[in-house]
Design brief:
InterPro entries: FxsA. By secondary structure, the protein is mainly alpha-helical. The protein has a domain of about 110 residues. Helices cover about 65% and strands about 5% of the residues. It contains six helices and two strands. The protein has a two-stranded antiparallel ribbon. A hairpin with a 5-residue loop joins strand 1 and strand 2. Helix 2 packs antiparallel against helix 3, helix 2 packs parallel to helix 4 and helix 3 packs antiparallel against helix 4. The longest helix is centred in the N-terminal third of the chain and has 35 residues. It starts with a helix and ends with a helix.
Length: about 190
């Protein structure tokens, strides 16, 4: 229900603001101003997006999870969409998503809120923590770094165990695959 109200209230407010601004400065000037804010927003979005992508790539190369950069990317996408939406109210919200200091402040508070809610619910998302953490209490990227293959392919180290049922196995005893399958059954 609140989302439905958002999709009804925001367009009505946008139309009212556009009519008020258009009556003060003229219709063509208002349209030009809306187009100008969209172009400025796209230029800022491109610059901020490339910067955020570079920082995320550096963190992944260092074996760290780029959580903040992923949230910043989401904010940039929302801000870009709002800037492309005609209107001054959505432009104001969109520009606030693109201003680095303001965006960092909002993301910091949002991440604290998410961590507090996750902790209250018994889930733990920290690397290396016990309980309900990802990876069974292991740091997901620090302990198992990426490796480059001969042709530039990425490899992630891991373990697996083949589990064939005896009825499905068509290999004869003594072959290497059969021996490793039997070792897993012991």
């Amino acid at each position: 229900m609140p989302l439905l109200l958002l999709f009804v209230i925001v367009p009505v407010v946008e139309m009212w603001v556009l009519i008020q601004v258009g009556s003060k400065i003229g219709a063509l000037t208002t349209i030009a101003l809306v187009l100008l804010t969209a172009m400025i927003g796209l230029a800022l979005l491109r610059k901020q997006g490339v910067s955020t992508l570079a920082r995320a790539n550096q963190r992944m190369q260092a074996g760290e999870m780029p959580a903040k950069e992923m949230v910043e990317g989401l904010f940039l996408a929302v801000g870009g969409a709002l800037l492309l939406t005609p209107g001054f109210v959505t432009d104001l919200i969109g520009f606030s998503c693109l201003i680095p200091g303001l965006r960092s402040l909002v993301i910091g508070r949002l991440m604290k809120h998410v961590v507090m809610r996750a902790s209250a619910g018994g889930a733990s998302f920290g690397a290396g923590s016990a309980g309900g953490s990802f990876g069974g209490g292991q740091a997901p990227y620090r302990d198992r770094p990426f490796r480059r293959g001969r042709h530039g392919d990425d490899f992630i180290e891991g373990e697996y165990e083949r589990q064939d049922s005896p009825q499905q196995s068509t290999l004869e005893p003594g072959t290497p695959d059969q021996d490793s399958s039997e070792k897993g059954d012991r």
